[in-house]
Design goal:
mainly alpha; 2 strands
């Protein structure tokens, strides 16, 4: 076979490959991470806008290539598409988007809110194409997605630690562009962003480290420990709590009795710590958390409730949950009601709950189902104390939409 014929076969193979490649996944993850809480939004807005253009263009191109490959290989079917998601994703996502559109029309910044709603449509559409019904082996694609995410986040953490150390104790060489905090924030504007992304990465690595028959993959376990150190350096109590719950849920799948006992002890310890921190803050908590016993969450949530009452029933539209009096509710449920109204809230609940109710007919096996639900549960625990991550082309929304779309894909052969 001549070199020209070999090149033609390779090109045809790539065009006919429905599964996303490693390069494509790394590219999308990298651009989406850079688009999340970018420090360039204030210091270099032109750079931030350029990253956004690249990120959305790459997402549309990659998902478009996968769609084209499905057409060329005759795997695309509207009937299969409808039957795979009609009860798990179509109904709740339709209600969710309808709520946000109505809220955008009702809110103070209609065009901005509609623009942000279109970002959600891109995320839902692209992740279903990349990780959903078009894939012949969803389990393989999902494991690949977990592995790529954990490794990319590990690279981000390895880059962020020296940057943060330089900002805290060094010469602040990047001070014109990056903002330094007392806790690890690295390339992001806030430690919270580093915390939630690293926490999810640690859970991905941990799920790959634990194998059937109680075997352990040492390489993935070391990566898990490294990412856990990153979570601790952010000193995000919500992320540490979420990491513990998610990790113990995954552990419980492989070691049911021990995992159940450890999870119970962890929850009891967390509740005890919270009670001590609230009622004995003046004598104990102030030494540990000088910013406040719950970092002013009580004030933020009270303001968020005022916004909820004022926004009912339609909501104010996406991007409007950070106005007075809450100035950021730091609570995902309050933010969803404020931005999407009651319809958006019901749609979001359905998006979270329906794939779990239909998990037994999912195209992924029981072990991966447990991993996906554990990661999603941990992320929701974190978002109960920190909102603002659950929309648009940014992490962790893009990643979660992918794994949740895989779980929601129904096996039509059953």
């Amino acid at each position: 076979m001549t070199e020209k014929m070999i090149n033609q076969v390779e090109k045809r193979t790539y065009l006919h490959r429905v599964q996303p490649t490693t390069f494509e996944l790394i590219l999308l993850l990298t651009l989406t991470i850079l688009l999340t809480d970018s420090p360039f939004e204030e210091s270099a807005p032109d750079v931030a806008n350029l990253i956004a253009i690249f990120a959305y263009s790459a997402t549309l191109l990659v998902s478009g290539r996968v769609f084209l490959a499905s057409v060329l290989t005759k795997q695309f079917s509207l009937q299969t598409f409808w039957q795979s998601y009609k009860y798990t994703l179509f109904a709740p996502t339709g209600i969710y988007l309808l709520g946000h559109i109505i809220a955008s029309l009702h809110g103070p910044n209609t065009l901005q809110s509609l623009w942000q709603t279109s970002h959600d449509v891109i995320v839902f559409g692209s992740t279903i194409l990349l990780f959903g019904w078009l894939q012949a082996d969803i389990e393989k694609v999902l494991r690949h997605w977990l592995a790529i995410y954990a490794q990319v986040i590990a690279v981000v953490l390895a880059t962020s630690i020296p940057i943060w150390l330089d900002g805290r104790f060094g010469q602040q060489l990047l001070s014109p562009y990056l903002e330094y905090h007392a806790y690890l924030n690295g390339i992001f504007g806030w430690p919270t962003t580093m915390a939630v992304l690293t926490m999810i990465g640690a859970l991905c690595a941990f799920s790959l480290a634990l194998r059937p028959n109680r075997k352990i993959n040492i390489r993935w376990m070391f990566l898990t420990l490294f990412l856990c150190i990153g979570v601790i350096l952010t000193l995000s109590r919500a992320a540490i709590l979420a990491l513990g719950i998610g990790g113990l849920l995954i552990f419980r799948k492989h070691y049911p009795r021990l995992g159940r006992n450890l999870l119970g002890l962890f929850i009891i310890g967390g509740i005890t710590f919270a009670i001590l921190n609230v009622f004995f803050y003046d004598t104990i908590g102030e030494q540990l958390f000088p910013r406040g016993g719950v970092s002013q969450r009580d004030v933020l949530w009270a303001g968020g409730l005022q916004n909820v009452i004022g926004s009912l029933p339609w909501g104010y539209g996406p991007g409007q949950a950070f106005g007075a009096p809450s100035k950021g509710t730091h609570q995902i449920l309050l933010e969803i009601v404020i931005e999407g109204g009651l319809l958006g809230f019901l749609g979001a609940l359905g998006w979270w709950i329906l794939p779990i109710l239909h998990r037994h007919s999912s195209r992924i096996n029981n072990e991966l189902t447990y991993v996906v639900i554990s990661i999603m549960t941990a992320t929701l625990v974190h978002l109960m104390f920190h909102g603002g991550f659950f929309n648009g082309l940014r992490m962790p929304f893009f990643f979660l939409a992918g794994i949740w779309g895989a779980l929601a894909t129904q096996d039509l052969s059953t």
